[in-house]
Amino acid sequence: MRYPASEKLEIIRVVEQSHLPTKLTLDKLGIARRTFYRWYDRYLEGGPEALADRPSNPSRVWNRIPEAIPACA
User: Fold this and answer.
1) What is the pLDDT of residue 2?
2) Per-residue pLDDT of the chain (73 residues; tens, 9 = 90+)
3) Are 12 and 44 within 8 A, CB to CB?
4) What DSSP designation does 7 have?
5) What is the CA radius of gyration of the chain?
6) Distance between CA atoms of residues 44 and 41, nearest Å
7) Phi and psi of 42, rounded to 5°?
8) How far apart are CA 31 and CA 27, in angstroms?
9) Using CA atoms, how far apart are residues 39 and 61, in angstroms rounded to an integer?
10) Among 60, 69, 51, residue whose Cα is nearest residue 13
11) What is the rounded distance in angstroms from the CA atom of residue 25 to the CA atom of residue 14?
12) Element at 71 (helix H, strand E)
């Protein structure tokens, strides 16, 4: 399941303000620790804007022939 940036930020705030250990809080929320810490690292480095979804497909393919090069006949 993908979470929007606003939900990721809310989850981070809940974990930060919880009096329970992080692992227990994440277990109650149903969020994997690895996922949470990936979000948290991005949040610490770039703020709330860094939590926005990133495209999963590459922006370019390494072996694609550019359109500027004509095909051999």
Assistant:
1) 85
2) 789 999 999 999 999 999 999 999 999 999 999 999 999 999 999 999 999 987 767 666 677 666 776 666 5
3) no
4) H
5) 19
6) 5
7) -65, -40
8) 6
9) 27
10) 51
11) 8
12) none
The whole-angstrom separation of Cα 12 and Cα 30 is: 13
pTM given for the model? 0.71
State residue 21's pLDDT score.
Answer: 95
Cβ-contact 51, 7 below 8 angstroms:
no
Contact 13, 60 (CB under 8 A): no
User: The tokens 């703020």 sit on which residue?
Assistant: 47
d(CA 47, CA 42): 7
Distance from C-alpha of 26 to C-alpha of 14, rounded to nearest angstrom: 9
The Cα 43–Cα 8 span in angstroms is 9
What's the rounded Cα separation, in Å, for the pair 11 and 15? 6
